[in-house]
Amino acid sequence: MTSSNPTSRVAIVTGGIGGIGTEICMRLADAGRQVIAVDLATRGERIEAFREQVSVYNGAIRFEPGDVSDFKGCGSLIAHIERSIGPADILVNAAGITRDTSLRKMDPQHWHDLMRVNLDGVFNMCRHVVEGMTARSFGRIVNLSSVNGQTGQFGQTNYSAAKAGVHGFSMALARETARKGVTVNTVSPGYCDTPMVAAVPHDIRQQIIADIPVGRLGTPSDIARAVIFLTADDASYITGANLPVNGGYFMSF
Ligand SMILES: NC(=O)c1ccc[n+]([C@@H]2O[C@H](COP(=O)([O-])OP(=O)(O)OC[C@H]3O[C@@H](n4cnc5c(N)ncnc54)[C@H](O)[C@@H]3O)[C@@H](O)[C@H]2O)c1
Question: Transmembrane region positions (predicted)?
Answer without folding.
Answer: none
